[in-house]
Amino acid sequence: MSKKFTAVNWNTPENDYALLFWEQNIKQFWIDTEYIPSKDIDSWKRISPEIKEAYKKALGGLTLLDTLQSHTGMPKIIDHITCLQNKAVLSYMCMMEAIHAKSYSTIFSTVSSTAEINEIFSWVEENKHLQFKAATIDAFYRAIDKENPTDEEVYMAIAASVLLESFLFYSGFFLPLWLCGQGEMVASADIIKKIIADESIHGIFVGLIGQDIFKKLPNQAAVKERVIALLHHLYENELKYTEEVYTEVGLTADVKEYVRYNANKALMNLGFDAIFEVKQVNPIVLNGLNTETTQHDFFSKKSTNYEKSTEIVHLKNEDFEMDATVNI
Amino acid sequence: MVHIYFDSKTGNVQRFMDKVTQITGWKAYKIGPTTTAKVPGHLVTFTTRFGDVPDTTREFMNREAKQIFTVSSSGNTNWGRNFALAAEKIATDYSVPIALKFELSGTMNDINQFIEIIKKNNYYYECKHGSIKLDIA
Ligand SMILES: Cc1cc2nc3c(=O)[nH]c(=O)nc-3n(C[C@H](O)[C@H](O)[C@H](O)COP(=O)(O)O)c2cc1C
């Protein structure tokens, strides 16, 4: 026999965090169709054409990142993770990325015509800053598309993934949160906030796996420098992307601050220190995150057929025997 | 001397405490299943699940709440209203005031702010707790 195939055994923990993340992910589960973005139609009519344009572009850009993450990032990384329970958690996350990518279409379908939607997707293909983001990250994923990548190559792919999930998304998340913080497009923002909670947990988990690999690297200082250089490279591009999407609506400075703030958090997920001086994140955006939404624990608070049964009454044959003495 | 008991699952609070102790020379103890707080001090923990207190922290507080002066929690504002909610739950459940809520492993600002707050209040708490006798007989 050549290779031995191993089955994932959840009865013996492989580390002290896989089960925690598995359970948290399950509790965060959601699907786009449980939300009703059509409630936002009146709001959509109220907002200015410039904001509408920026909103569509922001969501188009987010769709591209989630597509890359679910179709390439997660699958390639999963292939090179040895811990089977961690692989399982990553597979689950991969599935959620596909739900994220689809959910933007759900929002689009309520606010845009087919022609407009097609236009956004063409814009995504043609926009050089978006294409630069995708190509830069994709190169690290493709580098491990082989039998035996080095630890450094795997680590860099993981670091790129954390940068995508904890940093690159936020120039796009800014606008729906900013609108929601003022009471606009709140139903669609419910979806966006579910995506943000997911991305947050993904960033922590993938970052943790990255830290484990980093500890084994012989040239840690040099690799850390590579990550910081990559971050700066992407940051320069984020600034240009931000200008392109947000100049018309006058939010560029605020978005850039939010981008730096999240770049710091991405670094922390990788176990590094923050590098950007951040003064203040736009309070309307934080308000957008704080507004009470339909955030729920899918399995314990919802009454659909997904609901977990907690009080099961076992039926016996006697239960079906009719009482002949019932008075009618 | 300031003593700090801290809980950490994914390393952020650990890194936060490493910096605090490096700067101040304070003593920090990582909470484990049998950790006791022989000397009174402050608690730094994190928020988990949906705005929850970690089990390890809760078990520690069930044993040692009397010895704890203040609570701080790490979290992530992406969790909205659940941001660092563990601090509030502990404040309510064990009547311990909140010192600070911060994100992940904290920025230099957070670290300096934390040190300031603890410095300002530690003496007061030690006196109140009776571990230092006030010199005004
Ligand atoms: C499973 C899980 C659930 C979390 N839930 C919350 C939450 O409800 N609120 C919050 O502010 N942060 C939440 N966080 C973020 C953590 O509190 C944050 O990452 C913290 O820095 C972790 O500290 P540690 O690395 O020392 O364990 C959660 C993290 C994980 C892994």
UniProtKB/TrEMBL annotation, chain A:
Catalytic activity, reaction form: a 2'-deoxyribonucleoside 5'-diphosphate + [thioredoxin]-disulfide + H2O = a ribonucleoside 5'-diphosphate + [thioredoxin]-dithiol
Cofactor: Fe cation
Pfam families recorded: Ribonuc_red_sm
GO CC annotations, alphabetized: ribonucleoside-diphosphate reductase complex
Gene3D superfamilies (UniProt xref): Ribonucleotide Reductase, subunit A (1.10.620.20)
Cofactor info, note text: Binds 2 iron ions per subunit.
Annotated signal sequence range: none
Similarity section: Belongs to the ribonucleoside diphosphate reductase small chain family.
Descriptive protein name: Ribonucleoside-diphosphate reductase subunit beta
Species name: Rhinopithecimicrobium faecis
Gene responsible for this protein: nrdF
From TrEMBL, chain B:
Name this polypeptide is given: Class Ib ribonucleoside-diphosphate reductase assembly flavoprotein NrdI
GO MF terms, alphabetically ordered: FMN binding
SUPFAM superfamilies named in the record: Flavoproteins
Chain's gene name: nrdI
Domain of life of the native organism: Bacteria
InterPro entries registered for this protein in UniProt: Flavoprotein-like_sf (IPR029039), RNR_NrdI (IPR004465)
Organism: Rhinopithecimicrobium faecis
